[in-house]
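Reading is simple: each integer encodes one residue's backbone shape. The lines below illustrate:
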Amino acid sequence: MFENLTERLERSFKILKGEGRITEINVAETIKDIRRALLDADVSYKVAKEFCDNVKQEALGQNVLTAVKPQQMMVKIVHDKLAEFMGSSSTDINIKGKPGIVLVAGLNGSGKTTFAAKLAANIKSKRGMQVLLAACDTFRPAAIEQLQVLGSQAGVPVYTEEGVTDNVRIARNAIAKAKSEGIPVVIIDTAGRLAVDQELMDEISAMHSAVQPTETLFVVDAMTGQDAVETAKAFNDRLDFDGVVLTKMDGDTRGGAALSIKAVTGKPIKYISSGEKLEALDVFHPDRIADRILGMGDVVSLVEKAQEQFDEKEARELKKKFARNQFTLMDFYKQIQQVKKMGDIKDLAGMIPGVGKALKNVDIDNDSFKGIEAMIMSMTPLEREKPELINGSRRKRIADGSGTTIAEVNRLLKQFESTRKIMKGVADGSLREKMKHMRRP
């Protein structure tokens, strides 16, 4: 996400490198390059021009401190303006009501149905609220079946009416069911089309008027760039939705939609979605996305994802194991499972400052851990507890059982032992003491 834009902006800032101060001449050259970078990222000319004018005005009005280099000042200005253009701060959805009704709209192929299920799973797990999904897309073949499968995975009931094609009726009956059963949230998956047309607009307007949702979200495929922005504008002119959801952010997106939608529609981006996993849904934080665009990573989101997956009690027990040197290969295996639940491995690595750029052309598969997992699961319970027992014949058996080589087994055991020593030093404080002694003159 945003890899090419990040690289282009970094080149733009280098124009100011070595300059003693910000002047109209060197700013003009930098701004020109930033505008090109934005246009290449599929940001509309109007939005790119307005953005660059704002950056230029801000830059020329700055009294640069002697301690701050012009390049650093420009990075900060661009960061702040990027966040401002994308909405400044995150915006929550409104699910208040009895029940709260979320209407999900969008074109076919935008990821609308998958998002509806992801949102249901998100509300259930993070807010502890029961959700009812209403299957109101009778236009697309297999849309109802898809929602039922996803609803089952999320542990959320799906309301359907076999043989009924009146989507408004289905939605009303779903809301009535939620009221009678005390379900606080209803998410309505609506019908889409391949393109914006009058029939689609009439249908979604009729649905909106009939159910009076507390929140209307428009789902758009981020990979379609400026087309996504134009589609969002057309829907907003007719529907006046509350917010936008950008899907397929893990694809070959140039970032234009994320940077332009708020400026064009005036409506905030509320969620970004990537991948097929139900957990792959994030609240849109403009300031954090600005950090990522400028290659600063997103440590806050990384920590939040880790906190969601790691149990506090389990973490305390793990620390004790580290201190006593009782960390086992089975504990190691469990930690791998926790990391995998956090999301796409390359995306997670990109949240660490500097790492995203280093991994730009590196292919990191989510199956990267498979070999390690296979080796650990090919061991006996005793071998996982006491890896020092694993001799030559055992190593061959483990390699054969996991489809790996003896060299790979040796590497795993060596890395595990090194990790165990380091973590023991961190847990009992001895590593910190060694570091202090090393720093002393």
